[in-house]
Amino acid sequence: MEVFGLDIGGSGIKGAPVDTATGELLSERIRIKTPQPSTPEAIVRTSVEVIRKAGWSGPVGCGFPAVVKDGILRTAANVDESNIGFDLKSALGEALGEEVHLVNDADAAGMAEIKWGAAREEYGTVLMVTLGTGLGTALFTGGHLVANTELGHIEIRGEDAEHRASDTARKRENLRWRAYGQRLDEYLNRIDALLWPDLIVLGGGISKKSDKFMDRLSVRARVVIAEMHNEAGIAGAALASVSEAERTGELA
Ligand code: BGC
Q1: Total-model pTM
Q2: Which of 54, 115, 121, 181 suits a disulfide with 213, CB 3.0-4.6 Å?
Q3: Distance, CA 136 to ligand 1 centroid (Å)?
């Protein structure tokens, strides 16, 4: 099946048509900066622009950096607060005249890594951690997703973990890689003590620079780098629109 994968982020809105059998992007990805302020209307407008620019008509799978329940956005950590309560699934569907499926962005990336990437054929407890504008998590057991985990917002040293260990935090505080690695290690150790995952997959923009901080990590669980890098969000968003039975068929 061919589905347009749309990855809405705090800094960019990216998308491409995806072959949901292979995870392959079928043409070059289109990226437009996330409008500021990132109000629901502006996000819908820019999303439509990305999809039109790609010349796509057909179903759309979309990842968004928030808790998503029944197509409705329930949180807004890195987008305008007016998104809370917004029915993005319906609004985008109506604007496009197409069927739209909406999931949390980290859940989308995790689904792609489980199906095609660093966590394929991993049947235990897997935690995907995305390090980008925000700090996102996706939790799987036996290949099944526990949707909308928000473990990027646990408290560490009195602060939101995302505020300490996301890529934005690294840039904002101008942290050296060594210091950033220690921050990340502290975060992963806390998560490890709470969930005891078998595997942690690190993704998001920063995963490309993993050689700069991997040697700082002391966490018990096996830690690997996402294999699909910044394509995971797009491929996973498309994949999320396929039924779970179909998606996890190989793992069941
Ligand atoms: C949001 C999550 C999102 C993550 C990564 C966090 O701030 O709360 O929903 O998955 O950022 O974008």
Answers
A1: 0.96
A2: 181
A3: 4
